[in-house]
Amino acid sequence: xxxxxxxxxxxxxxxxxxxxxxxxxxxxxxxxxxxxxxxxxxxxxxxxxxxxxxxxxxxxxxxxxxxxxxxxxxxxxxxxxxxxxxxxxxxxxxxxxxxxxxxxxxxxxxxxxxxxxxxxxxxxxxxxxxxxxxxxxxxxxxxxxxxxxxxxxxxxxxxxxxxxxxxxxxxxxxxxxxxxxxxxxxxxxxxxxxxxxxxxxxxxxxxxxxxxxxxxxxxxxxxxxxxxxxxxxxxxxxxxxxxxxxxxxxxxxxxxxxxxxxxxxxxxxxxxxxxxxxxxxxxxxxxxxxxxxxxxxxxxxxxxxxxxxxxxxxxxxxxxxxxxxxxxxxxxxxxxxxxxxxxxxxxxxxxxxxxxxxxxxxxxxxxxxxxxxxxxxxxxxxxxxxxxxxxxxxxxxxxxxxxxxxxxxxxxxxxxxxxxxxxxxxxx
Length: 428
Known about the structure:
The chain is an alpha+beta fold and 428 residues long. It has helices spanning 17-27, 30-43, 81-92, 96-107, 125-135, 148-158, 166-172, 174-178, 182-189, 193-204, 211-218, 254-258, 264-298, 300-305, 315-322, 326-332, 365-377, 387-398, 404-413, 419-422, and strands spanning 47-50, 62-63, 71-72, 226-231, 234-239, 246-249, 337-340, 343-346, 354-356, 362-364. It starts with 16 loop residues before the first helix and ends in a 6-residue tail after the last helix. This is RNA polymerase factor sigma-54.
């Protein structure tokens, strides 16, 4: 055996903590960015915030999403569920560690009320578990759950009227329950079909998502991230971020940064984190401006005439125009809303493809989804059609060439169950 030593060079891409956080920051809505900035203030002693001078946010006048045609917003801005939870935390808990933990979880609740952990974990699994259960004592049941199963389970555990064995069904038989295998579940739990029916009726009363409470903040009371105005056929836009606090170095700690004292090393990392945050926020802002400029160029008809004039557009086309990677466009357009003269839309709604018809014309993806929603809404609930039969119906009745797989994709995007799950339940 011959032993030798040799030196080699390898080129590897290392995903640093700050790079992961910068990527996450791109996906934040303006409201989420505000929450993130305020959380960073708690963690970094060098960060001081200058509050905006404008006292109130301006609610949008209209809201349109993929799931609904139009939602009229309330005329006055109401306190949102997160603000209420923060107040309840301060009134209910006295331990600083519990308050800080609960604030972290509330900061990271998505629009469905689920806990969405940051890229870089701050708390351990058992600590988050404890915090979620503490939240159940002050918030709507299921808040802070990390999955559908946990959300249903929390509601079952903390409700006093849950039938016996309901928690076992959710914890151990949820997939079988979703597939309506009543007899199988009843046999395994040694209960009757009558008991199973009571469990089924109870679970129907649970909320799989708390979007009715949280999504109103994103839609009904949402301050849009971008505002587009059209005057004399001239389209302009502005970032609606006036309510974001401005970042500055805390004046009490500046002398420690510039001095040669032993404390300088302690503040070095905090200074690096502060500079990273400032730069990342600015980079996010510049990317939004670039993408909106490209969208106005490519979707002028949409901004002047609404969805009827939208053109097919892909993320890649915009990425190539502004010289960034497609994934950057994808992240920047996530969780963002744009207010237009025709309503407030998700920014992702401006990217759409077209399907061919038998006459050689084309129809937008948005129109097809609207037809699909209306058709399923009015179908015979005792005999709902499969995706293949719906595809056949689209071809014969509307002349739209669409595959079964595409119908399935659109249905899942709109959270519409499959035909077997749409069928009316009948217990024997």
